[in-house]
Specification:
eight-stranded parallel β-barrel
Amino acid sequence: MKVLISTGALLGYVNGKEFRLLKDIVPRLDCDGLEFMMYRDWYERKDEAIDVVKSLDTDIPVMHFEKSMGEMIVKEGLSKVVSRFETNCEIAKEIGAKKAVFHLWNGTTSDQQIDKNIEAYGELRQISDSYDIELLIENVICNKYNPFCNWNWLIERYPDVSYIFDTKMAAFHGQMDGIYGFNKIDHVKHYHVNDYAGGYMEWETLRERVLPVGAGNIDFEKFFGFLNEISYDGTITLEASGLNRVTRELEYDMLNNQVKTVRKLIDN
């Protein structure tokens, strides 16, 4: 398995989401590559962002598309999303990413009108396919149904859909065990690995800092044992925030120690 770190764990409001900082950050990380996360205030600087990311001496097999598009589908209509989605595809292709994480539903609207989101997937998938980008639908938190319900409805409509599974989002819905019995596990092509310290749909805990492996209550020995059992040999991304809100600095030791912890779990 390749252990990636999300650029979302490295760039945030504390350091102004400044992607140029990656040039100094990346050499200090002990991981196998990055998952590049797109922010909605970067579109006007798209070309500059591409140049910076391409200059990094690291593998970037996955891009996390801008998160708000799932909510835009319902609030503003698919036509408003298509141009932005295509821009994300262009960036992914330019930086060499072959997979794209996508929040098909998102925000306060979430899955309140899931039929519209599922309908939109077909057109968005055609666009990503045209760029040779594999579109992965994440088990994003829900406020009407739950992620596995939405996944199952998606696969009924689009039998060849691909997924990305996030441990924190699953734990929030009490669905970590659901992945172990998921009968379409071959459709899961990537994993986000974060810890969670709250209970079932405990929103306040969810909004707190994204936790590194071992800081919450997820059984990661069981989780990585399962990945080894199914012979998963793809990519996983660590998303725990490395930004200290007090010192306003990146906690490199935490980030790199988490990579070591995960590698040990993989090797067990």
